[in-house]
Amino acid sequence: MQKELWGVMAKCGERDIPLGVTQVRDLGGAVFREAMSRIAASVHIVTTDGLAGLAGITATAVAPITLEPPMMLFCINKTSPSAERMIENGVFCINTLTGAQETLADIFAGRTGHRLGERFTHGEWTKLVTGSPVLRGAAAAFDCRLAEAKEVTTHFIMIGAVEAVDFGKEASSLTYAHRKYGTM
Fold it and tell me: N or C: the chain end with fewer CB closer than 10 Å?
């Protein structure tokens, strides 16, 4: 049940939802997803390599946690084949993308049919400390050792201790909002 306060409607999948100030009591996944699509987020490729194998995903649910010691987190769906590899390898690298790296974002998001290690045939990759792939030319790369994988309903929150960083020249950052890429 929702209470419309302004009267402006927007399409959300197959149904109309009110825009403006809206109180939503029956919060379904589609309504929550629509609200989240309004939030601009930086786009990252999170990678891992080790005994469990090479893997990587595109992620927008990424955040720094602390400065001392430097810690980062990202979220990954538990059903992703990359999740198990990241946990078993115990390392990951968060590569923050520039506006010129949109194609890589699609590849690692699974929109092109490339799977796991095949994704790394695109882009130029190197390594820092942990052995996780680091994208040359990324806006920034945070090479992390996994400190904790916290299971929260459908996802893992992966918390890592940053062991090394790298960053490129100042450039526009790739963002995702309103279900499309942008830059800032």
Answer: N
Cα distances (angstroms) measured from residue 125 to each of 30, 79, 80, 105 = 37, 26, 22, 14
Q: What is the pLDDT of residues 138-177, one digit of tens each?
A: 999 999 999 999 999 999 999 999 999 999 889 999 999 9
**CA–CA separation, 73 vs 12, rounded Å?**
30
Q: Determine the pLDDT at residue 116.
A: 86
Enter the DSSP assignment of 172: P
All domains in the chain, ordered by first residue: 2-36 (no CATH), 41-183 (2.30.110.10)
164 burial (CB, 10 Å; 0-12 / 13-18 / 19+) is: middle
- Local confidence band at 58 (pLDDT 50, 70, 90 cut-offs): very high
Give DSSP secondary structure letters for 97-163. PBGGGHHHHHHHTTSSS--GGGGGGSS-EEE-SSS-EEETT-SEEEEEEEEEEEEETTEEEEEEEEE
Which among 132, 168, 163, 141 is positioned nearest to 47, based on CA atoms?
132
pLDDT of 66 > 50? The answer is: yes
- Other CB atoms within a 10 A radius of the CB of residue 114 amount to 17
For the entire predicted model, the pTM comes to 0.86
